[in-house]
Amino acid sequence: MTESTASKRRAPRADARRNRDHILDTAEQYFSEHGVTGSLDAIAKRAGIGAGTLYRHFPNREALLASLLSARDEQLVARRDELRTSAKNAAEALDGWLNAVTDWACAFDGLPEPLRAATTTNLSPLAVTCQGFITTTDEFLRAAQDQGEARADIRALDLFLAALATSWVRGAAMADAASGAALAALTRSGWEQAPDHSNTRRTA
Amino acid sequence: MTESTASKRRAPRADARRNRDHILDTAEQYFSEHGVTGSLDAIAKRAGIGAGTLYRHFPNREALLASLLSARDEQLVARRDELRTSAKNAAEALDGWLNAVTDWACAFDGLPEPLRAATTTNLSPLAVTCQGFITTTDEFLRAAQDQGEARADIRALDLFLAALATSWVRGAAMADAASGAALAALTRSGWEQAPDHSNTRRTA
Amino acid sequence: MTESTASKRRAPRADARRNRDHILDTAEQYFSEHGVTGSLDAIAKRAGIGAGTLYRHFPNREALLASLLSARDEQLVARRDELRTSAKNAAEALDGWLNAVTDWACAFDGLPEPLRAATTTNLSPLAVTCQGFITTTDEFLRAAQDQGEARADIRALDLFLAALATSWVRGAAMADAASGAALAALTRSGWEQAPDHSNTRRTA
Amino acid sequence: MTESTASKRRAPRADARRNRDHILDTAEQYFSEHGVTGSLDAIAKRAGIGAGTLYRHFPNREALLASLLSARDEQLVARRDELRTSAKNAAEALDGWLNAVTDWACAFDGLPEPLRAATTTNLSPLAVTCQGFITTTDEFLRAAQDQGEARADIRALDLFLAALATSWVRGAAMADAASGAALAALTRSGWEQAPDHSNTRRTA
DNA sequence: GATGAATGAGTGTTCATTCAT
DNA sequence: AATGAATGAACACTCATTCAT
User: Fold this and answer.
1) CA distance D79 to B5
2) What pLDDT was estimated at residue B180?
3) Residues in domain HTH tetR-type (chains A, B, C, D) (predicted)?
4) Candidate from C145, C162, C200 with C-beta closest to D186
5) Burial of C56 (0-12, 13-18, 19+ CB in 10 A)
6) Which of B48, C1, C64, C103 has the greatest CB tally within 10 Å of its CB?
7) pLDDT, tens digit (0-9, with 9 covering 90-100), for C68-103
8) Which is it for the CA torsion C39, C41, C42, C47, positive or negative?
């Protein structure tokens, strides 16, 4: 299917492809330096192309972000497959996945914000990206729930948002890394001490 | 304490005081409508004063925000006192307090962002405000820990940040309210199911 | 004449012809919606062709407009013939013709502007179109003048411009239709009251 | 009244006034060269001020135009008074006035367009300016009608629009001046030859 | 013949902050 | 103390036209 449509627009034109890739590289670097709210014009300038060219490839900031992030999909997908096979149990797999998502959402300063927005608007190009990850989260979550390793009243969307929130807490490069980790831990175990009459062992 | 420094500049001039209050009222309204990133110029205009006057009272956006929020301190302090006496146990008190903080940080759209920043920069006028609430959080947390109702490895700062994160997830008025509540719940209990040795009852 | 030059490049290629027609249809619709200053790129996009193809067929906006309008020539020519036979006198014929021209120039929002320009520059592809209509106007005018039904000091060009001006006054769809009609009436009879020798008393 | 409000905002600040005047001078020159659609940024740059300063004084193009034109009001008003006293009859006065309006609307290339728009939208700052002139037109028109020198079925608005249309026909500096005059003449007397054998019958 | 990528100056507008009045 | 004018870079985004493919 994808092939047939691709055959229609035969040549993606070598220079266009090159430009596109160059824009992505430049944006990656620029966003790393200035956060996701950095100037698109500045990216175009740094890439040595006209602003129009950037907008042709990526009609708006979110489209650019989406492309940037989907380039990292492979890594996340790889991580997912790895967790599926190597995790010692469903809870570890879910935990590992959520950590991976958190890292992913920390790619650029300010990234969690549009991602969160994308979970509710559905209009953003980021929405599809997010949706895919929520689905994966759901798979891990269900597995853990089936194994009795995760509470039954948890929704995948909420875990995804919790991961984003953790990225958000980590915030800028300067922020307290420990607090980010702490929120991740809270998300897993909560602050509440189980009122264990006998001996509830719980691993921090 | 604050009074003694104020005594230095004897009469704060009635009109200045009036202006200040009027700015605060206007800003309150404006931020409610447009979020915390709204235009300060617009606030000055709506308040019917010059931009310079606004900047005289509040040298920057965060100073304005800090004043705005500290006006709500009383409510939070009242809530704190209420929780201290009425909560049936330390865990409920802590939970109630965190919910109060979460609500407080939802006062304006986009408010969690500068608050989070204030927890790390220390330079922001908001830092003092935050610090006070972190201290209160610490009191509740310690009480709960002393009662064995909260895990010992939790830090007040992290709980405070978790509350902010919850506000952040709630986000704009449009956002999914359930997800906000879900993160609060996660923060309390985590998604992990305690490995029950007897018989795990689980409702699908 | 035009045919002989066309015979040079024998087959206009079926697809080229089809493209050309499709562009015209699309442009007709687009200009109706957005006025004559609408984006040519958008027209190409809507027509499903590349921008270059559009420019191959019509090197600039005015060339496109000219083709668009000459497609309506038939209607105007038909109207001309109709007026020649059916009008009860030369003045009515001229009046009918000017109204037809006015309607024609109202085809798209903003059309009168390039038409007026075309009457003076001669470089525009629209110039030919306009010239033809001015000639026809001249025929009707002369007939009326011969019949003593039109003043002798009137020029066809000026009547044509007056018709364009009337279209211009009608302006966008929103404009005051009555004023358009009023200008047409003024053009015919003027605001001046003929000095009546008897005694025309007229109360304002 | 105007004085009391003026006293409130005591100092229009000498530099502000100077800037404002300088902007107006620059805009006058720039619009003369490039027409009313010229770049506002370019005007700011040429005036040696920041774009923001221009926008502070004139929030949009039409506000700037309105100020520019109202500076010419005095001339028109003077002309009005002159016509009132010196015109040999009401018809000449009206004719002189319409010519004055036409000249006024020719001040810049492209000016008739926003003026016409202003007669229908009412939202434009130009609307007030236009309204004033329409009122004056009405005075001259009524006088002429009272004298039996103008047809009773004419509206002031339509005469005003006819004057604008005449300016529009004159168009750019390059345009055919004769055609402009011709439309003005048409507006006054029409193209129709009164079929007067003896007594002038004229159909409305 | 057709394509559509590239151009890049240009658009109007905003805004936090400073400083002359 | 209050004012509000000035700043001017920055913003996202557009579009007619060219030209390599």
Assistant:
1) 67
2) 87
3) 17-76
4) C162
5) middle
6) C64
7) 998 888 889 899 999 999 999 999 999 999 999 999
8) positive
Mean pLDDT, rounded, for B19-47: 92
Cβ contacts of B108 within 8 Å, gap of 6 or more = B31, B32, B35, B36
Q: Strand F: which residues 41-60 of A lie within 7 A (CB)?
A: 41-42, 50-52, 55-56, 59-60
Residues B128, A181 contacting (CB under 8 angstroms)? no
| Angle, CA A134 vertex, CA A177 and CA A153 arms, to 5° | 90
Q: Tell me what pLDDT residue A95 has.
A: 93
Minimal CA–CA distance to B96: which of B74, B116, B114, B81? Answer: B81
Q: pLDDT of A167-179, one tens digit each?
A: 999 986 556 678 8
d(CA D102, CA D96): 10
Q: Is A124 on the interface with B (CB under 8 A)?
A: no
Class of domain B73-188: mainly alpha
- Is the CB of residue A105 less than 8 Å from the CB of residue A163? yes
Average pLDDT of the residues of chain C: 86
| Each residue's pLDDT tens digit, B121-141 | 878 889 988 999 999 999 999
pLDDT at D196: 55
Lookup result for tokens 């009008």: C87
With bands split at pLDDT 50, 70 and 90, how would you rate the model's confidence at B15?
Answer: confident
Nearest to C95 by CA among C17, C147, C32: C147
| Number of residues that this document lists for chain A | 204
Cα separation, B68 vs B74, in Å, equals 12
For residue C10, the distance in angstroms to the closest alpha carbon of chain D comes to 41
Alpha-helical (H) ranges within D48-72 are 51-57, 61-70
SS in 3 state form for B148-187?
CCECCCCCHHHHHHHHHHHHHHHCCCCCCHHHHHHHHHHH
Q: What is the DSSP letter of C11?
A: -
Length of chain B: 204
Handedness of CA A157, A163, A167, A168 (dihedral sign): positive
CATH number (3.15.10.40, 1.10.10.60, 1.10.510.10, 3.30.980.10) of B12-58 reads 1.10.10.60
Range with lowest mean pLDDT among A162-166, C113-117, C196-200: C196-200
Q: One-letter amino acid identity for A146?
A: D
Q: What is the C-alpha separation between A43 and B140, in angstroms, rounded?
A: 48
CA–CA separation, D149 and D145 (whole Å):
6
Determine contact: D120 vs chain C, CB below 8 A.
Answer: yes
CATH fold group of domain A73-189: Tetracycline Repressor; domain 2 (1.10.357)
Does D123 touch chain C if contact means CB atoms closer than 8 Å?
A: no
CA of C39 to C1' of F16 (A): 9
Tokens of C182: 């009023």
Distance CA B59, CA B48 (A): 18
Q: Which amino acid is at B23?
A: I
Q: Nearest residue (Cα to C1') for E21?
A: D13
Where in chain B are the domains? 12-58, 73-188
CATH classification code of D2-58: 1.10.10
Q: State both tokens at B131.
A: 């610090």
Cα torsion C117, C77, C35, D127: sign: positive
